[in-house]
Specification:
Elements lengths: L16 E4 L8 E18 L5 E19 L4 H7 L8 E5 L8 E11 L7 E9 L10
Antiparallel strand pairs: 1-4, 2-3, 3-6, 4-5, 5-6
């Protein structure tokens, strides 16, 4: 664990748990990187001369990027965990140190990287909307 000296800074990844419905269990992913962005749709309101006079902001959402690697207590378990989350899977992030990141998201993209010099890793993007849409509606 890092020791912070001289100046108080936020260091490292603070999320303590990740659960993705339909994918490997939370204990099968180790988070090694995070990115976070706030996004929304916008409409610029212009006057007759084309000058911007206002803006309409709607459909706000939080977009979370995760870099994780699958693992297990054995090679067989690691191979079982080596399955990308599906688009639309519910993703729950626990993070007591960062209230921006903690919450319930929906997986919007996932990619796998392999190399002959590194462990397999996943890049997962998940989106949190102002209304929780992570629950699957039954027919």
């Amino acid at each position: 664990m890092a020791s912070v000296k001289g100046l108080g800074v936020v260091f490292g990844v603070s999320s303590t748990a990740i659960t993705i419905a339909g994918a490997a269990s939370a204990s099968d992913f180790k988070i090694t990187g995070q990115s976070f962005a706030k996004e929304a749709e916008t409409v610029m309101v212009k006057d007759k001369d084309g000058e911007t006079k206002g803006m309409v902001v709607y459909d706000p959402r939080d977009v979370l990027g995760l870099t994780v690697y699958p693992h297990g207590s054995s090679l067989a378990n690691a191979k079982t965990a080596n399955s990308l989350p599906d688009i639309g899977d519910k993703c729950v992030i626990a993070d007591s140190d960062d209230s921006d990141i903690a919450g319930t998201y929906v997986v919007t993209s996932s990619a796998k990287s392999k190399s002959n010099t590194d462990v397999t890793s996943f890049d997962v993007e998940a989106t949190k909307y102002s209304t929780d849409i992570s629950t699957t509606i039954s027919s």
